[in-house]
Amino acid sequence: MEYIKVTRDNLEEEHICCAISNNRDVQVSSKKAWLADRFDDGLVFLKSVERGKCFIEYIPAENAWNPIVADGYMYIDCLWVSGSFKGHGYSNDLLGTCIEDSKEKGKKGLCILCAAKKKPFLADPKFLKYKGFSVCDEADNGIQLWYLPFSADAAQPKFKDVAKHPHVNDEGYVLYYTSQCPFNAKYVPIVEQTANEHNIPFKVIHIESKEQAQNAPTPITTYALFYNGEYLTNEQMNDTKFLKLAAR
């Protein structure tokens, strides 16, 4: 498999693996705009030359859009290999390249969000354990921070308190999200409209800066849905899923 690094210079021409469409699609344009603003922060987006979901996205942890303390680490936003690409060792390729690059940049290790059991849009814990990662912190909602140190004396990353104990003060549904995930550009407005049409209390908080993300009341900032103050899920909703959830 050949891989290509997406940069500001080729961003407009390259497809984005997590949203296979053209640049006029709102999902693609929102994701590319988010990426363009992250390159100066050290973000790396490495993907298959083939069209499909086969890529890794990572950034120095100090610039990650998550409330973590992981100075000197590299944070993996997403490692996604699916469909016909699975089972060919591409995840090993991508992670191996990230490890090599991070070591060359003098990083202490890698960290990534996960959970004890596989959750949507989170890394597979079995794969991480196989590659030598282990849990270094866990939030009250079961979201875990895993790490792969490059030396035995490397300090363990951890969640900030605001993320370790996720909670909001608002009643009804509250959704925190970023433009890091392209699907939000399409589905968040749909769920918001659905809630309004059914008179369901629904508040949307679009995280638009690193500072805002690093102080959000949730370990997952790409998509975090709360109800009456309590964290519910990071699984993206469409209108049908949301109404089913609200009917419980």
Describe the structure.
It is a single chain. This protein starts with a strand and ends with a helix. The strands form 3 sheets. A 7-stranded mixed β-sheet has the order 1-2-3-5-6-8-7. With 248 residues, it is α+β, with helices and mostly antiparallel strands. It contains 7 helices and 13 strands. 43% of the residues are buried. Helix content is 25%, strand content 27%. It folds into 2 domains: 160 residues, Gcn5-related N-acetyltransferase (GNAT) (Aminopeptidase, 3-Layer(aba) Sandwich); 81 residues, Glutaredoxin, CATH 3.40.30.
Q: What labels would you give this structure?
A:
248 residues, Aminopeptidase, Glutaredoxin
> Helix- and strand-based class?
alpha+beta
Unreliable residue stretches: none
Q: Tell me roughly what share of residues is in helical segments.
A: 25-40%
Task: Name the average pLDDT.
Answer: 94
- H/E element string? EHEEEEHEHEEEHEHEHEEH
Shape: globular
| Fold-level CATH name of the largest domain | Aminopeptidase
Span from first to last CA? 46 Å
Largest sheet: 7 strands, mixed
Q: Count of helical segments? A: 7
Number of beta-strand segments: 13
Q: What's the CATH H-level superfamily name of the largest domain?
A: Gcn5-related N-acetyltransferase (GNAT)
- Record the strand order, biggest sheet: 1-2-3-5-6-8-7
